[in-house]
Amino acid sequence: MGRIVVDIMPKPEILDPQGKAILGALPRIGIDSFTSVRQGKRFELATEGEVTQKDLDAAKEAATELLSNPIIENVVRVEAVEE
Amino acid sequence: MGRIVVDIMPKPEILDPQGKAILGALPRIGIDSFTSVRQGKRFELATEGEVTQKDLDAAKEAATELLSNPIIENVVRVEAVEE
């Protein structure tokens, strides 16, 4: 079995209320090390056998066509990962 | 400025309806390469200067205390990343 990780983040210019809410909550648990927090999505796509170039191409297509909204999000990573 | 990435995934034994819905939608865009899809969260925490060990420790604490629900989610990565 192989695995491909796809990471999606909001475009930098897009408002990230969830990230702001987290940044605002961190001091309540005594953490003030961070200047900003942004939240995105992480997908793991499993393949039958080892990851092939065809699988990677399919993951890239899925990332732009289905897993992300190209208007407000960037696909920041599509990568085969070790089991 | 430094950046720390925190990746959170649902525990393997936890039902992932979102992942199942995506797996079911992939054939509609002609993709059948994948046996499963799981969806988690990806956070980017920005620091004022270069990332220090103290920042990494704070990110780990934030990951378990605030960014994840330890009952249903695993923190799979807390790592400083290049700008």
Could you give a quick summary of the protein structure above?
Chains A, B: It is an enzyme of class 6 (ligase). 2 copies of one chain form a homodimer. Chain A has 2 helices and 3 strands, in the order βαβαβ.
Model description:
The structure is a homodimer of 83-residue chains. With 83 residues, the first copy, chain A, is an alpha+beta fold. Chain A has a single domain, classed as Mth169, Chain: A (2-Layer Sandwich), CATH 3.30.1280. Helices cover 29% and strands 39% of the residues of chain A. The first copy, chain A, contains 2 helices and 3 strands. The first copy, chain A, has a 3-stranded antiparallel beta sheet with strand order 2-1-3. Chain A is elongated, with a radius of gyration of 16 Å. Chain A starts with a strand and ends with a strand. The interface between A and B is medium-sized, with 35 and 35 residues. Strand 2 of chain A pairs antiparallel with strand 2 of chain B, so a sheet runs across the interface.
**Class inferred from helices and paired strands of chain A:** alpha+beta
Averaged pLDDT of chain A? 95
Level of helix content of chain A? 25-40%
Terminal-residue CA separation of chain A: 8 Å
Total domains of chain A: 1
- Rg calculated over all Cα atoms of chain A: 16 Å
Keywords:
Mth169, Chain: A; 83 residues; alpha+beta; 3-stranded antiparallel beta sheet; 3 strands; elongated; homodimer
